[in-house]
Amino acid sequence: MTVDEALKLIQDCREKNIRINIKYANLEGASLTEGMFINANLEGANLEGANLERANLRYANLDGANLKFANLRFANLEGANLGYASLLNANLKFANLKYTNLIGASLRHSNLEGANLWNVKIEASQKDDILNALGVLIKDRERRAERTE
Fold this sequence. Notes:
- The protein is mainly α.
- The chain has a single domain (1-149), classed as Pectate Lyase C-like (3 Solenoid), CATH 2.160.20.
- It is built from 3 helices and no strands.
- It has helices at 3-16, 127-133, 141-148.
- The mean pLDDT is 88.
């Protein structure tokens, strides 16, 4: 599916209030600002560099999606499934991630400043990436241990 075909499908579905299924679509670099993707199936979709600022992705399935360098500023991702999605360098400033599944998602170098992370699901191994994305400086544990000896 081309970007133009996907955008037309999204527009048609929005007008008819139909659930969107664009699984594995290539929407790289697409401008989807303020798009309505409630309950949309975007599993495995390529959204690298896409502009999803203020998009409504409530309860969307983005399992395994590529969101590298995507702009999700002020996006509503409440209850969305972002399991195993790549959010490398994604801008999630002020995004609503309440009740979102982030298990296995790659959040390295993403920006979560001001994001709502209430009841997000993560693995223990992701906590450092999330803290870094929030701007929390994590001291090196080995250096700290050396100082106490």
